[in-house]
Specification:
Elements (H helix, E strand, L loop, with lengths): L2 E4 L3 E4 L4 E5 L11 H9 L7 E7 L7 E7 L5 E6 L10
Antiparallel strand pairs: 1-2, 3-4, 4-5, 5-6
Length: 91
């Protein structure tokens, strides 16, 4: 079972969250070429080890989080807000 330490709600089970995908993608500009978009959307490394992911705290504070997770052990190393200005931290 994966436990994610939400900055607002504290440690919660991963079932409260929805996986949002690779958190390290650098999205191209809206007017970028189709080739740039294909690369960003479909051509990614299958990382073995630590990687950044986005998770949505769907059944909690509803914030988007960046989570650094090890894909081999599922150990969570870092959790932070995905966007600045997402409200005040209460803890």
């Amino acid at each position: 079972m994966i436990k994610i330490d939400c900055p607002f709600c504290g440690v919660r089970d991963h079932s409260e969250f929805s996986y949002g995908g690779d958190g390290s993608i650098e999205w191209p500009a809206l007017d970028a070429s189709a080739s740039d978009w294909v690369t960003a959307v479909y051509e990614r490394d299958n990382i073995r080890g630590k990687q950044w992911e986005t998770w949505h705290h769907l059944y909690g504070c509803r914030q988007w989080l960046l989570v650094e997770r090890d894909t081999l052990t599922h150990e969570i190393h870092t959790v932070k807000l995905a966007h600045s200005g997402c409200g005040q931290l209460s803890r």
